[in-house]
Amino acid sequence: MSDPTRFLVVLDADSTLIRNEVIELIAEEAGRGPEVAAATEAAMRGEVDFATSLRARVETLAGVPVVALERVRGRVEPTPGAAELIAAVHERGGVVGVVSGGFHEILDDIAPALGVDLWRANRLAVSGDALTGQVSGPIVDAEGKAATLAAWAEDHGIPRARTVAIGDGANDLVMMSLAGLGLAFNAKPLVRAEADLVIGPVDLREVIPLLP
Hints:
Elements: E1 8-11, H1 22-29, H2 33-44, H3 50-59, H4 68-75, H5 82-91, E2 95-103, H6 104-114, E3 118-127, E4 130-136, H7 142-155, E5 163-167, H8 173-178, E6 181-185, H9 189-194, E7 197-199
Parallel strand pairs: 1-2, 1-5, 2-3, 5-6, 6-7
Antiparallel strand pairs: 3-4
Helix pairs in contact: 1-2, 1-4, 2-3, 4-6
């Protein structure tokens, strides 16, 4: 674990590891897609507090049957190059983590299928066979993402300088500034302006030449 060649790559999930915004897919199941999509866009641009916005969006999901999540999982599409990037990190002795303002209910299926080593996300509260419209436990916000990256690096004996953070939204900026290299990917203008580097094509293979 102390091998100095090891490094950590941490990705955001929605619109980074995967092409979708999962909360929007769930909202479509509830027939509330447009309002949730607009709120998501504002949060990602940094116009509203992420945790406040997430709670408000999740409230609109109250009553959605849990079985609808299986349909959502079937609609999720990995971003082009995701599997190749993860394989390249592993070939070089690195570790891949995903930290998301989205939901474990979806990420627990996607992350292991893609070969991700570590992941953390929010959890949706359930009563009976339906969503309650609440988030269960602390919300994974910008500070939570950064703290997770720091904890994973420490757990694996990886210096902060050998960490890479990849994200698209305003809630990724703290994590990106903490990492040795912060990459804006498929990103909003605010994130592009503050990142160390901007990846233009929406293809995660573009990150491979930048690996430590």
